[in-house]
Amino acid sequence: MGFKTIRSRVEGRVATITLNRPERLNAIVDPMPRELREAVEAADADPEVHVIVLEGAGKGFCGGYDLEVYAQHPGPNPGVQSMPWDPTVDLRMMGGNTEDFMAIWRSLTPVVAKVHGAAVAGGSDIALVCDLVVMAEDAVIGYPPARVWGVPTTMMWVYRVGVEQAKRLLLTGDLIDGVEAARIGLVSAAVPAAQLDEHVASLTERIAGVPRNQLAMLKTVVNQAYGNMGLASTQLLATLFDGVARHTPEGVAFKQRAEDVGWRQAVSERDRGG
């Protein structure tokens, strides 16, 4: 496949999909969500593949949506409309991205996220729909746009860690490291960075020894429990609110600030609070 933003390879029973914009910390732009979906669906359809590993090239897993494109660049863009805005236009765009990310969840083949560096904002949306997440101890995860300009569209936080911890992380927008993420059950394991590759390889080798049909049945029944808890309706509301958050007075002000001083400074001011 002629992918622009990812790489994909199969070795034995393991498919590895790599987010591949290392010069931008693998930040999300079109067509990454669609390409990610295509790669996952291709691996899932491969009768030789028993497990998929999702990783990021370069210094981190994924830094979220590319704010140089969506915030700093002057004027409207696919994520920011001129006023008055139409929420259904935004819902179509972000809803499509959410559906693309959820290909990971829908895949009958288990997906293991290997997180180094950072999985933040939209990057955490992707990591947390994987079946298992293994982090380097010094890696960080979180959703800073919860402070202004975003709502996590896959909204896996509450399903992974419950009400109290989900509210703590989303109401502050704070980042936590791999050690803390594993302690609260957000991810399955945190290991020293130098051991991350080895740990994931050992885990995937163990999973790969299980028949594909058995893996599919087990993943399906666990996922169905979350479907019964209303995951789809939660994500619909979260995706709608994500668009709202970019068009509130505060959201518009953040976009203008990013245009004026650059997205890095705007994010620094937002996340510092006060």
Main traits of this protein?
274 residues; 9 strands; six-stranded mixed β-sheet; three-stranded mixed β-sheet
Task: Show the helix and strand layout.
Elements: E1 6-11, E2 14-19, H1 32-45, E3 51-56, H2 67-72, H3 87-101, H4 103-106, E4 111-115, E5 118-120, H5 122-127, E6 132-136, E7 140-142, H6 157-172, E8 175-177, H7 178-183, E9 189-191, H8 196-208, H9 212-228, H10 231-245, H11 249-261, H12 263-272
Parallel strand pairs: 2-3, 3-4, 4-6, 5-7, 6-9
Antiparallel strand pairs: 1-2, 7-8
CA-atom Rg in angstroms = 18 Å
Instruction: Provide a count of the helices.
Output: 12
Mean of pLDDT: 97
Give start-end ranges of low-pLDDT stretches.
none
State the share of residues found in helices, binned by percent. Answer: 40-55%
The largest sheet is: 6 strands, mixed
Annotation, overall tally of beta strands: 9
Beta content: 5-15%
Helix and strand content put the structural class at alpha/beta
What is the string of SSEs from the N terminus onward?
Answer: EEHEHHHEEHEEHEHEHHHHH
**Global morphology:** globular
* CA distance, first residue to last residue: 47 Å
- Looking across the biggest beta sheet, what order are the strands in? 1-2-3-4-6-9
Write a structural description.
The protein is an alpha/beta fold. The chain has twelve helices and nine strands. It is globular. The chain starts with 5 loop residues before the first strand and ends with a helix. The model has no long low-confidence stretch (mean pLDDT 97).
